[in-house]
């Protein structure tokens, strides 16, 4: 393990008020989003959509890393240039999602365990050779009656830690993503309690598996009330709860926290990230960054709709959303930016 190289890459991923753009949706998820807009669900259309994103002018001004899917990291532009090279040439670090999805957990109704450890060492070696320098693994934790169970939390934390150790062995920075889901009617207080418990379990397992925290990026949920909760806290209350929770559970050795959007609207995710940086940036021990997918992509996808003539307009929308999130990292985001 090249500890210094991992540390340098991790710092670069959260440097200069930039963040990550996740374009790592599975083929099935990408096809579902295409279907809603009447876009053909083919490999070529997915390739064209990814090319639109990767070739967006100025993207590297706001985005430090791109998380790809297995299909995507193997694809090329129409002229044959590998996507990984396009990304690197733009000054962006290529990454890749390496888990194989969350599956029903035996003996735990309503809970999931993320799979993909079998054969992971060899896959990581291949991805490194293809140009990837970081990876991502997502665990999902549902909140409901009697859940999450301790068994689900521990199993997912253990898998995240084993994945992280294998990544560092292969020279890849692990993005560790334990997501407490927004689905449900739970309160912000309940989300806080579950998120704290999950993060403490994850960092305990990372320590047990001898993972270097200086070479890790954490990708957590924000602390939020469930989507169907009768009370939705203000942007400032969410910011305070989220960072307070992280201060209790995340060691200062971690260089950066890159939040997932988790189904939030792009504007709300930016506003909440902005509030965190306004209130805590000067004293937080880690960078407060973003690792958004739909919260950056969706406006561009709705404009594009699979039409070549709309590529430039879609790219402008994508750049604008990325720009808004860089502003949020600086504590300079304002909703008026959305209308520029």
Any descriptors?
340 residues; alpha/beta; globular; eight-stranded parallel barrel; TIM Barrel
How many extended strands? Answer: 10
Instruction: Give a short account of the largest sheet.
Output: 8 strands, parallel, barrel
CATH superfamily: Aldolase class I
- Highest CATH level, the class: Alpha Beta
In the predicted model, the low-confidence regions spanning at least 5 consecutive residues are: none
Structural class by helix and strand composition: alpha/beta
Shape: globular
Order of helices and strands: HEHHEHHEEEHEHEHEHEHEHH
- Looking at the structure, the CATH topology is TIM Barrel
Number of domains: 1
* Mean pLDDT rating: 96
Total number of helices: 12
- How large is the share of residues in beta strands? 5-15%
Over all CA atoms, what is the radius of gyration? Answer: 19 Å
Give an overview in words:
This protein has 340 residues and is an alpha/beta fold. The chain has one domain: Aldolase class I (TIM Barrel). 46% of the residues lie in helices and 15% in strands. The chain is built from twelve helices and ten strands. The protein has an eight-stranded parallel β-barrel with strand order 1-2-3-6-7-8-9-10, surrounded by eight helices. It has a two-stranded antiparallel ribbon with strand order 4-5. The longest helix has 21 residues. The chain is globular, with a radius of gyration of 19 Å. The mean pLDDT is 96.
